[in-house]
Design brief:
By secondary structure, the protein is of the alpha/beta class. The protein has nine helices and five strands. It has helices spanning 5-28, 36-111, 113-131, 171-177, 182-207, 224-233, 235-243, 251-331, 334-342; strands at residues 137-142, 148-153, 162-165, 217-220, 246-249. Helix 3 packs parallel to helix 8. Belongs to the RmuC family.
C-alpha cells in the first residue's frame, strides 16, 4: 500500500464509523411519546458531532493534499536532477567511447610499420614547420651518398646541416612491455638492444657525411614512453650512440632542440645582416669621402671662377672708362680741343 494512502483512509474510516454510530443511536432512540424532546437534543448533538467530524476530515484532506503536492514537487525535482545526471553520464560515456576509438586507432597505427612511420613523419614535419623558418629545413632531402633522409635542418658551419630519421623499430619494445615472465623479458631486452645498435649504425653510416652534414644526426622517437625506457634500460647504448654522433630525441626534447636551432639561425641571420649593413656603411663612407673631394674641387673651381669674374669686372670697368673718355673726346668742339692742345 502506498505511504500516502494510509493517512487518507484513517479519517474516512473514522467518519464512516461516526456516521454508523449516529445511525445506530438514532434507530435505538426513536421517538416514544414523552422522550421526543431528549431524542431531538441528542440528534442535534450527534449532528454537531458529525459536522465537527466532517470539518476534521476536510482539514485532514487539505493537509494531505498539501503534503501530496509537496511530495509530487520533490519527486519531480528529484526526477529532473536524475535526468540531468543521466545526461552528464551519457555525455561522459560518449566521450569515453570516442576516446576508446581513438586509442584503438592509435594502437592500430603503432602496430603497422608503414602507418607508424607515416605517423612519425607527420609529427616530425609538423614540429619542423612550427618551430623553424621555411628556408631553415628541407623534407626528404637526398645526400650526395645517395641516401634520402626524412628531414635536413640547414644549420651553418659549424656545426653544419643535421639530418633527422623518423623511423625506429618498436616491435622489440612492445614485446618487452608485454613480456609475461623474466625469460621473455630478457629475450626482448636482447632483441631491443640489437635493434638499437643496428639502427644507430645505419644512421651514423648514412646520415653523417663529413663536409656535407654536421658531425651528428638525430633519431626522432614519436613516443615519450619509448624515449624514457631507452634511457632507463639501455643507458649504455644511448651513451654509445651519443659518442658516435647519433642522438635519440623525443617530441619534448626535439621541441627544445628546435628552439635552440631557431635561435642559432636567427643569430646567424642577424650576423649576416650586420655584415651586410657594415659593408653598406663602408660604401656610404666611401661615397661621402668622394663627395667631400668633389665639393672641395667645386669650391676651388668656384674660387677660380670668382677671381676670373673679378678680373672680368675690372676689365669691363676699364673698358667702360675708356669708352667714356673716348665719347667725351668725340663730343668736344674743335675750339675746346685746340685750347686743350695749346695748354
Amino acid at each position: 500500500m502506498p505511504d500516502w494512502l494510509l493517512p487518507l483512509l484513517v479519517p474516512l474510516a473514522a467518519a464512516l464509523a461516526g456516521a454508523l454510530l449516529v445511525g445506530a443511536i438514532l434507530l435505538a432512540l426513536r421517538p416514544r411519546g414523552g422522550d421526543s424532546e431528549g431524542v431531538l437534543i441528542l440528534a442535534d448533538r450527534m449532528e454537531a458531532l458529525s459536522d465537527r467530524l466532517d470539518a476534521a476530515v476536510a482539514a485532514q484532506n487539505e493537509r494531505l493534499g498539501r503534503a501530496l503536492a509537496e511530495s509530487a514537487d520533490r519527486t519531480q525535482d528529484s526526477a529532473r536532477r536524475i535526468h540531468e545526471r543521466l545526461a552528464v553520464i551519457d555525455a561522459a560515456r560518449a566521450n569515453i567511447e570516442a576516446l576508446g576509438g581513438q586509442v584503438h586507432s592509435l594502437a592500430s597505427i603503432l602496430g603497422n610499420k608503414q602507418a607508424r612511420g607515416a605517423f612519425g613523419e607527420v609529427q616530425l614535419r609538423d614540429m619542423l614547420a612550427d618551430r623553424l623558418p621555411a628556408d631553415g629545413w628541407a623534407w626528404q632531402f637526398s645526400l650526395t651518398n645517395g641516401t634520402r633522409c626524412d628531414a635536413l635542418i640547414r644549420l651553418p658551419f659549424p656545426p653544419g646541416p643535421i639530418a633527422i630519421d623518423s623511423k625506429f623499430p618498436l616491435e622489440a619494445w612492445q614485446a618487452l612491455r608485454r613480456a609475461p615472465d623474466e625469460a621473455a623479458r630478457a629475450a626482448a631486452e636482447r632483441r631491443m638492444a640489437a635493434d638499437i645498435r643496428k639502427h644507430v649504425d645505419d644512421v651514423a653510416r648514412k646520415y653523417i657525411c663529413p663536409g656535407e652534414t654536421a658531425e651528428g644526426a638525430l633519431i626522432f622517437l614519436p613516443s615519450e614512453a619509448l624515449h624514457a625506457d631507452l634511457h632507463a634500460l639501455f643507458g649504455t647504448l644511448v651513451a654509445e650512440a651519443g659518442r658516435r654522433g647519433v642522438y635519440l630525441v623525443s617530441p619534448g626534447t626535439l621541441w627544445a632542440v628546435l628552439g635552440a636551432m631557431r635561435a642559432l639561425m636567427r643569430d646567424v641571420r642577424l650576423r649576416a645582416e650586420a655584415q651586410q649593413l657594415r659593408r653598406e656603411v663602408a660604401k656610404l663612407a666611401e661615397e661621402t669621402e668622394r663627395l667631400d673631394r668633389r665639393v672641395a674641387s667645386l669650391k676651388r673651381h668656384f674660387a677660380d671662377m670668382q677671381a676670373d669674374v673679378q678680373q672680368i669686372e675690372t676689365t669691363a670697368q676699364k673698358i667702360t672708362a675708356a669708352g667714356a673718355r673716348i665719347e667725351a673726346v668725340e663730343m668736344d668742339p674743335p675750339a675746346a680741343a685746340a685750347a686743350r692742345a695749346a695748354e
